[in-house]
Amino acid sequence: MIKELVHDPIFLGGRSETASAADLPSAADLLDTLTAHRETCVGMAANMIGVRRRIIALLDESGRAPVYTVMLTPEILRADGEYETEEGCLSLLGGPRKCRRYKSIKVRYQTVEFKERIKTYTGFTAQIIQHEIDHCNGVLI
Ligand SMILES: [Zn+2]
What we know:
Bound molecules: zinc ion
CATH superfamily: Peptide deformylase
CATH topology: Peptide Deformylase
Low-confidence stretches: none
Helix content: 10-25%
Number of helices: 3
Radius of gyration: 14 Å
Shape: globular
Strand content: 35-45%
Number of domains: 1
Distance between the termini: 27 Å
Number of strands: 5
Mean pLDDT: 96
CATH architecture: Alpha-Beta Complex
């Protein structure tokens, strides 16, 4: 189900909790909401739709074809190659803001089947994942 986006900075500034099987409907809602905003958005965290769980959805361009992916309780294990960039966010008003990211990140997460995955991402997909994990930690660009 497509959900309304949250813009309240106090709510968005809170840390999200570990995702469980009870949160799978929220994960589906997050994916629906992300794809509804596909023209302007490539990633979302669950708190952006009012759910304080560590769930992110993103357009993963690391494979042969772009694919929408959901990650439960994602965690960055390693980060290399810091650089400065600018990002926008649907939860924030105004234009892009400066931030620091890493070119390559190693991420551990669970799939919606609760299978653990560890994968290294680079480039734009890595950037999206870092932005969304920041949301899970209550960090806005
Ligand atoms: Zn954002």
